Amino acid sequence: MRRLAIVLVGLLAAACGKPPAPPPEAPAAPPQAQQSPAEPRATAPKLPPPKTPLDAYKRELAQRILASNAERTFEGKPPDILYAVVVLQFTVDRAGKVTALKTLRSRHPPQERLALASVRAAAPFPAPPATLLRRGTLEVAETWLFRDDGKFQIRSLAEAQAPDLRD
Q1: At the topology level of CATH, where does 50-156 sit?
Q2: Contacts 24+ apart (CB under 8 A), 159-163
Q3: Which residue among 25, 123, 127, 162 is least crowded, i.e. fewest CB within 10 A of its CB?
Q4: pLDDT in tens, 104-132
Q5: pTM for this structure?
Q6: What are the sequence ranges of the domains in the chain?
């Protein structure tokens, strides 16, 4: 319980703290120089603070999965029409080891295999907060959002899609 309180205080302090001073301006990069797809994301989406400790932990897992699979991910808002949506459930033990992994939803086998592989590539994960554990493990469900080029985002870190203005 004390560890959870420390984590929550740290998250709140980070969210409420003063923004860091802007870095000194660097010379503009030549137009042909682009970020390599394997490099970590330059900008994180602006998301509201997590509502629960589970939401905070899921974001931590999602960041690890994206960092371990950077060449297969995309940045920015997901398209209005997604090519595929895959929902996985996995169990993480108190040490962060994935002990079970299964598909809850998928109609696209290649994207399902990619989502499963992305979890395996990112494991082991950080240890979950002890308060989230039930019998020494934590079950997590997460959603992979695929564009038609085969790249994905993870729902816990994805920006909201554009609202439907037709209504």
Answers
A1: 3.30.1150
A2: 159/45, 159/46, 159/47, 159/76, 159/77, 159/78, 160/77, 161/77, 161/78, 161/79, 161/80, 162/77, 162/80
A3: 25
A4: 999 999 999 999 999 999 999 999 999 99
A5: 0.70
A6: 50-156
